[in-house]
Design goal:
The protein has 140 residues and is an alpha+beta fold. It has two helices and six strands. The strands form two sheets. Strands 2-1-3-4 form a four-stranded antiparallel β-sheet. A two-stranded antiparallel sheet has the order 5-6. Strand 3 and strand 4 form a beta hairpin.
């Protein structure tokens, strides 16, 4: 099962040249570039670990590509995404986000989990990734 999050998630994995072009696009729009990683790609996990600080006022995508490559070397078995944050007034939000690195071509996927809600008379269902059966750092 392939994880689909963010822009380009239904396309084949981007090459380094394509990732650099996307970073160039982020910079040309005046947005800050940030790199995040996780080994728990649950769709509800919106808090990925940050690799360094967001890079504001970049003029050359080489610096962001350097940070992305260092993150990929340090965490080859994690998901890595690149974000473009627009800090301009009235926006102050993430404008683009895409997965730049996946640990394996195939993700083990998710299971449906029944949850007892409230006093036990209401049942709800949620998703739970199979990878979380293993401890953090040993998931892929």
């Amino acid at each position: 099962m392939r994880i689909h999050q963010g822009t380009f998630s239904f396309l084949p994995d981007l090459t380094d040249e394509q990732i650099e072009k996307q970073i160039r696009y982020i910079i040309q729009n005046g947005w800050a570039v940030s790199v995040e990683y996780t080994d728990d790609p649950n769709p509800y996990n919106t808090y990925w670990n940050m690799w360094g600080l967001p890079m504001f006022d970049l003029e050359d995508p080489a610096a962001a590509m350097y940070e992305f490559r260092k993150c990929r070397e340090a965490f080859p078995n994690h998901y890595i995404k690149i974000n473009g944050y627009d800090s301009s007034p009235m926006w102050q939000a993430q404008r683009v986000s895409f997965i730049a690195h996946r640990p394996t071509p195939e993700d083990p996927g998710f299971r449906l989990k029944r949850l007892v809600w409230s006093d036990g008379r209401v049942q709800k269902y949620g998703l739970e990734p199979y990878v979380t059966d293993k401890p953090s750092g040993e998931r892929y």
